[in-house]
Amino acid sequence: MANQEEATARLERFLQWLQVNGAELRGCNIKYCDSDKGGGVYSSNDASSSDGVLLVVPLNLAITPMRVLQDPLLGSECRAMFTEGEVDDRFLMNLFLTVERLRKNSSWKPYLDMLPTTFGNPLWFTDDELLELRGTTLFRATELQKKSLLSMYNGKVKDLVKKLLILDGDSESEVSFEDFLWANSVFWTRALNIPLPHSFVFPQINEVQDNISMEKSSEASTDHGCSKAMINGKDVQKSEVKGNDIEVNGVELMSEQKDTVWVEGLVPGIDFCNHDLKASATWEVDGTGSVTGVPFSMYLLSAVHNSFPIEKEICISYGNKGNEELLYLYGFVIDNNPDDYLMVHYPVEAIESIPFSDSKSQLLEAQKAEMRCLLHKSLLDHGYFPAGSPKDKGKDTCKAVQTCNYSWSGQRKTPSYVNKLVFPDDFLTTLRTIAMREDELFKVSSLLEELVGTEGERQPSEAEVRAAVWEACGDSGALQLLVDLLHVKMTNLEEYSGTEDCDTELLEQEAHITGCPKEYIRGDTVNGSRDWCRCKKMSRNKWSSIVYRRGQKQLTRSFLREAEHALQLSLSEDSANQS
């Protein structure tokens, strides 16, 4: 009861804090969902407003890298490091969150107190829970990420946070790695890629004197977006920014697209929206106030035509993400996720040990070779063994495009299976080159020499090199290598946890345990009887791991079947052409 009262008090303080800072809950309320989700946004009596605006938050309330650089406590230290390129914008955000969590009189306390204290991503797994991921891509990725974060904490964060707290008059608080890990998880689970109006970011651009780079600095993207494809209330794609980059004193500040500057940040209130594949809302930025009446604001907009039932959760989409990405970044998975995918890669370090590695490396570079590919689940709809009838036949957005099946000599015919091949040609081109035999390598050289001349008057284009490689090699070698890679992946997945049937059995048992009386779940003896239901209910993290790895096994098996079938067809056609 005390915990519930304390949670209610925290929520009230947060809602008051939002109101004081100019946020307006016009058609929704923020409240606790459950132990898994934490907080959420729910419709209120006013959710049927004609303009569909549910929540408005001034952008001045957003936590962005610019705010950190202007902060009275952190600004001076951060500007110096940022100018020298020692840290990136995400480091600034994580440092800010770490410090504000520890500050005794932080003005952000009502907001930070509402955030989760632990998370469901693998960085927070116990040792036993992490073992459930052995054999998957996430297992090694988690180990590397945790090692990297620990190194960053010990190398930069720990002493810097202590110094800043002392400057703030606090010599007693102790910072821990968990504080920094918490800040990192808050950023990745809640940050949005915000299209800020140029005039908001640079109200007096001509008077800016600081030589500060604010460009996006990391490879990954916090894909929670606005209402464009993959930028739609967390339904975001990695935005392809075009246009001019802003420079001040010769240093690039950040990417600019017309009147928009893309910045990663946290927007209190909006960031309490949870994910659903069928989003009921999106978020937008109102630069002029023409929609909300609040210039420079972000607002939550209803995406449903009918009015919301009262107390219905309002969800946005985090994007078309597979379970690997959802678990790694957000700490949850979706069973039977329609957007699941399988990552297959050829290890770069292995190229050095293959025959004719130097020549092949040059060919790979000339073709801008992709050493890995993401095999989306929907690709299987176009293959030889579709799970069901293809959906949206007119929208072959995930269909592999064959670009290199061209023969200038006429000796190699376009394969009969080309329209059923589900594997991206960019990756097959890489595998063709790696699997190339000595006679095929010689033939590629001869074909390219015919194009550019013996003196090498010009360099062959990427398309010409790809065409030469395909004509010399065909698909058999690449498909055999792909089959081998998928076999290795399946072996790794099954080594520690068995087949997908084993995972299914564990999940079915969990479903039964969940439905058992609580005394069974605790493992107590009831009426002198104990059966399998006495097992403790598995943790949410373990359940997520099993769902994720089972999906990986299912996709590996399906794509392996496609690869083996395509290989047999390719070998048959090669044999027919030779006879």
Please state the second-level CATH architecture of the largest domain.
Alpha-Beta Complex
Cα Rg: 27 Å
- Classify the fold: give the CATH topology of the largest domain: set domain protein methyltransferase, domain 1
Approximately how much beta-strand content do the residues carry? 5-15%
Number of strands: 12
Class from helix and strand fractions: alpha+beta
N-end to C-end Cα span: 82 Å
The mean pLDDT is 84
Measured as a percent range, the helix fraction is 40-55%
Count every helix, treating DSSP H or I runs of 4 or more residues as helices. Answer: 18
Task: Please describe what this structure looks like.
The structure is a single chain. The chain is 42% helix and 11% strand. With 579 residues, it is an alpha+beta fold. The longest helix is centred in the last third of the chain and has 39 residues, at 540-578. The radius of gyration is 27 Å and the shape is globular. The model is unreliable at 205-221, 225-253, 389-403 and 515-535 (pLDDT under 50).
In short:
The chain has 579 residues and is α+β, with helices and mostly antiparallel strands.
